[in-house]
Amino acid sequence: MPTRIPILQGTLDLLILRMLLFGKQHGQGIARAIQEQSGDELLVDHGSLYPALQRLEDRGWIAAAWGTSENNRKARFYKLTSAGRKQLVQETSDWRRLAAAVFRVLDPQ
Amino acid sequence: MKRPLDDFSAEIEAHIALEADRLQREGMSPQDALDAARRRFGSVTQSKERYYERTRRPWLEHMMQDVRYAMRQLRRSPGFAVAAVLTLALGIGANTVIFTAIDQLALHPLPFRDASTLMSIETRKSASDEAWTSRLDFDDLRRSVKSFTSLAAISPVWNVVMTGRGDGERLEALYVSSSFFPMLGVPPGTGRGFSDADDKSGAPGVVILSHEFWQRRFGGDPALLGQKLNLDSRTYTVIGILPAGFFYPGEPMAGTANVIDVWMPLAANQIYNSPRGLRFLKVIGRRAPGVSPLQANDEVRRVGAVLASQFASTNQGYEIGARSLEEQAGGQVRPMAALLLGAVGLVLAMACTSVANLLLVRAAARRREIFMRVALGASRVRLLLQLLVEGSLLAACGGVAGVALAAAGLKLLIAAAPASLIGSRAMTLDVRALAVTAAYALASAIFTSLPPAWRMIGHAEIGAKLRENAASVAGGHHRLRSALVATQVGFALALLVGAGLLLRSFARLLDVAPGFDADRVATISTQLPSSAGTPAQRTAVYRQIEARMRAVPGVQSMASVSRLPLGGMNLGSWVWIEGRTEGPGAQPGSEAEYRVATPNYFETMGIPLIAGRTFDDHDNATAGTVCVINQTMSHAYFSGQDPVGQHIKLGMNPEQQPWITIVGVVGDVHHVAIDAPPRPEVYRPYAQNPLGSPVLVMRVAGDPALMLETMSAAVRSVNPEMPAYNVFSMRELVRRSNAQRRFVVMLLGAFALAAVLLAAVGIYGVAAQFVAQRTREIGLRMALGATPQSALRLVLAAGARLILLGLAGGLLAGAALGRVAQGMLFHVSPLDPLVFAAAAGVLAVVAMLACSGPAVRATRIAPMVALREE
């Protein structure tokens, strides 16, 4: 298995919010989507995924409800709240600044 | 609201089921898919990841990474790297040099095998006396003391004149017992050492030459061995040459620049058969294995006590003790050792603070990088280690460069140090010095890394939060730098105070009237030829010298005395005062320095007459014996009485001595040293006691330094066998007696200067940073109508706060350093308010000047530029 980059805590929150932007999704779906959309570079550590979901829920940025998946499995689905939507905008812009700064540091000029 | 655990487990189960479904769709069997899903869910738990991290990437790998990273960082900013390494190198190098000097001069001054088992055995009446032991006491000690495998005796430095081989040359000689060289473990380089048979009264004369004298005078001719030399008109056979570089650093050599040319057996000394009361030997011994210094001392004291009761007339009141020879030989340097080590240590502390400050500036520039690394999951320990590695790399480079600087610095130190301090020893950077250098470098690594590490912890917290306001980071940063700079100001003040105290001591010393007028006076020592045996013959030769000297243009008067002024402690003479200390078994009143002088000595030297008269030409060999005493003796022994007309006797056996009439009292002369109080002193007329080796004193018109050669030639023209040595202008002699103090003042002054410069640079940096950070604020204030003066005030006030803080701490540190310096102070209190005030004042002015550059820049901030900057 090729080494993948484990996702960091602060970043994971952002990615989860982002994955929920276009509709509700369950945990496995979120992990899968992050992995696929990062071109298999990012590895979602399940040990942190569920605590993160719990945390976001506690803060009121996402809401959860049990539902049924496409293939008729019972699953807990998460969706973005309006506070979560605002948070996503804020965190995305923070992250872009951060990333730009990282690049400047790593590759000066 | 807490979710029930069941709910959470159900969610995990759902996750695994969904994952298994997906894998099945990709073509796995249902069971395989389920296993894989479970495995995948549990495969990268944090605990497993940590375990992986710990076992697979050991600390060494991290360390190598950190070293590579630190090297890249330093390469990227060579200016910083050079500045930091150079600063540390100077600090470490200076410490290495001072340590080496103190180690070799004070702590391990004896270049002999097992030097720590060598002891000095000392006979004293009171603690302040210089220790000399009589020959008979030495013999008794040697017979009865069991704590030592061997004892050796050494005479004072003796002047002998070598004749019969061209111009007469005056040589420095030591007479030592035959046990001396074997005890020190020094084999002769060529030939043989003294045998016990050589060291007996009446044995044929034998002499061992120093390698240096052999080279200088005889071109290292090996045929010299077995040849005869004429020394003080006795014949000696050359039996050996010492190895090159041999020197004996213990007393009596300590404190003199003398290099011994020739060594003879103790028994050959003219006062070898002297009575027990004549104490003229230094005794050293090698402790037997298993005997502690304390036990050795105890035994020697017991033997001393037995001798004191057995020979009460000569030994009563005298104690004999033993102490480490290293302690004795290094004693002269020890008072200044702690002071110099402390001062140079402060310089290194300042260098470390400066580099820490530079690192902090860089840490500020790397703030984002550290945020990032924390955000990306770097552990704090990892970041701290990396900073430590960076500091260590700088310190290691500094240490290596420091050793190179130290090698050069040591040469400089040896060249600059007075001969009385270093003598003929060759100081080198040895293993101990290198070990100490390494320790200094390690300490530097830690001290330079600590402040940035402290800062980094702050960054790390902020990095973890990410949304913290950058300005407050900068604020905290500034506070830490300010604290460092305040510390620097404190250290600099302490060093300035130390240097100031010594400087003031030195000034006090220069204020001391030596008791004579040193201007336009020169001195030449000589030795009358052996043909001049009787007092009458000596007087005749002396008259001849005087006539030749008077003929030299510019010479106004010539006088002579038995001992060079400022020549150190003399062997005193016992004084018996009529009506007080008489009769059989009486104890002498006290001791006095004893000098023989010609009638015009006092006038020539400018020594004032206080009472009575000085000698005149009537006080000749046939007239009644007379003497002149100094004021100290007058006060000490005749307080409330008129000493003029009183009678005294000198010497050990008053029954055999004539009464001497005191005819006058003259002013005190600091004969021993400028910083030593004058001792009671008796002058006797030259004509009543013509000496074989007079010290000539000439008062001249003009600069005596220019006439020294002509005057020496005049002495030699009387008889080519007569040497002219110790040729000095009196000013030079005074200067030499201060040389050691001047040297320490110079060293400490250099340290203080370095410290002040480092502090000024530090303050400048902090002020500049302050202005840079507040450009926007200041610009805004100006836009709102504030005057440039208020900007100036803002910066200067910030600087002043910092400086005051540093000064307050520095006063305490200065007081501590002053205490350490106490032994070196002369008529100055370690808390001298003038020194403290002046040091603080100077530092405050320099520091405010350093602030003023950035402050002035603050007044030129254009409001609009400042506002546009962000």
Gist of the model:
The complex is a heterodimer of chains A (109) and B (870). By secondary structure, chain A is of the alpha+beta class. Chain A is 56% helix and 18% strand.
Structure description:
The complex is a heterodimer of chains A (109) and B (870). With 109 residues, chain A is α+β, with helices and mostly antiparallel strands. Chain A is built from four helices and five strands. In chain A, the strands form two sheets. In chain A, strands 2-5-4 form a three-stranded antiparallel sheet. Chain A has a two-stranded parallel sheet with strand order 1-3. In chain A, helix 1 (9-19) crosses helix 3 (46-59) and helix 1 packs across helix 4. The longest helix of chain A has 25 residues, at 82-106. Chain B has 27 helices and 23 strands. The radius of gyration of chain B is 38 Å and the shape is elongated. With 870 residues, chain B is an alpha+beta fold. Chain B has four domains: 5-43, no CATH class; 115-330, no CATH class; 334-511 and 739-869, no CATH class; 521-737, no CATH class. Chain A binds chain B through residues 6, 8, 10, 26-29, 31-32, 43, 45-48, 50, 54, 69, 71, 73-76, 94, 98, 101-102, 104-105, and chain B through 3, 7-8, 10-12, 14-15, 17-19, 21-22, 41-42, 44-46, 49, 366, 368-369, 371-372, 375-377, 466-467.
What is the radius of gyration of chain B?
38 Å
| Coarse shape of chain B | elongated
Report the mean per-residue pLDDT of chain B as an integer: 82
Number of helices of chain B: 27
Structural class of chain A: alpha+beta
What is the subunit arrangement here? heterodimer
Count of runs of 4 or more consecutive helical residues of chain A: 4
End-to-end separation of chain A in angstroms reads 35 Å
Task: Determine the mean pLDDT of chain A.
Answer: 83
Structural class of chain B: alpha+beta
Strand coverage percent of chain B = 5-15%
Tally of extended strands of chain A? 5
Series of secondary-structure elements of chain A, N-terminal to C-terminal: EHEHEHEEH
- Named CATH architecture of chain A: Orthogonal Bundle
**CATH topology label of chain A:** Arc Repressor Mutant, subunit A
Could you tell me the number of beta strands of chain B?
Answer: 23
The domain count of chain A comes to 1
As residue ranges, the low-confidence spans of chain B are 43-57, 253-257, 466-475
> Any idea what the CATH superfamily of chain A is called?
Winged helix-like DNA-binding domain superfamily/Winged helix DNA-binding domain
